[in-house]
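Below is a typical protein record.
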Amino acid sequence: MAVTGVIGLDVGSSTVRAAEMSMPKQGSLTLERFGQRALPIGAVRAGISMEPAALTRAVRELWKEDGFTGKKVNLSVNSGQVAVRSISLPALHPTEMRKALPFLVRDVVPIPIDRAVLDFIPLGELDASGKQPGLLVALPSEGVAGIVRAIEKAGLNVTAVDLGPFAALRALVRGREAAGVSAVIDFGATLTTVIVQSEGIPLMVRAIARGGDEITDVLSERLGISRAEAETQKRGFGYDESFGPDVADVVRAALNPLLAEIRSSLAYFASSNQQSPVQQIRLTGGGSLLAGLREALIRQQNISVEQANPFDNITLGSNVSDPSSISATSASAIGLTLGGSLDQSASNRPRPTDAVAAAERLRGGSGKSAAGFDPAAQGGPAH
């Protein structure tokens, strides 16, 4: 059983997580190791490392205390400033596209092109005009550069950068599970991402700058309790009025704005894709464990809603203890270890048109797509 040599490292706003997978030639994948460390409040905010030293320290502790030995990592970042747009571009070879992309999308990217990380994800066949339809992904390079520098100061080598939601999708939608149109909703501490996908290809991506921390803050303020106690009551009680209607009422009121944005996101997709309605919703992320959230989405959407399980078809190694406690939060880290490793032949879909595979190419760079990341180009030291 060969170890991949690449570890998935997921940097969120409250926690950093790492996963290591082994992949035999035949049989199931094995999650050999998983670890996580909490970050100080405010250490990473909106995808930007506000306290690089704290992030570096957390990663060093992970490697020292959880037995990770590899130095190569695929990194995921999460940003509320990510822009994902449907667009058709000239059908170019991937190498040519990387060079031409900043010039092709200069007028449609909502951030300065010289301060943007860009990628283009091809979707399907060429259109009637001979252009390639796909998704344009853009986010500020500042946040990516700062996180990469902090990780490399911990002695690691960042080999690729991926968007957290794309990594999670890769872990959660595999093989027969990819059939049909479904939505994966990732509830993070400060960011919630809605991805509508079909056969593993994202059809719509929307980042909502709301998450579990907002509910905790509202509970703390309205009930006059500490933030730590508010977090405990949120996780333990949620919508459940039997434990106290005061908590349930506040949680419901705090969650309603986020539920409204999810409703509008899925309604927009439905209006644009009437022939392919969303048939199911899968929940992931720490915020998805909120008691009553699943039932609230069932009432809102009137379709199947279930907690996603990134461990489907994955064997858990002896070093992975209490998998139930990490199931909701490990998808992005696990997805990072799967980049390009799964056999796609059974699906009879060529990898170049698979958007999940294309997302694996996302790299940092100043106005570049799928380019090698050079921290020095972003104002930091090269390592």
Notes: The chain is about 30% helix and 25% strand. The longest helix spans residues 245-272. The first strand starts at residue 3 and ends at 11. Residues 340-383 have pLDDT under 50 and may be disordered.
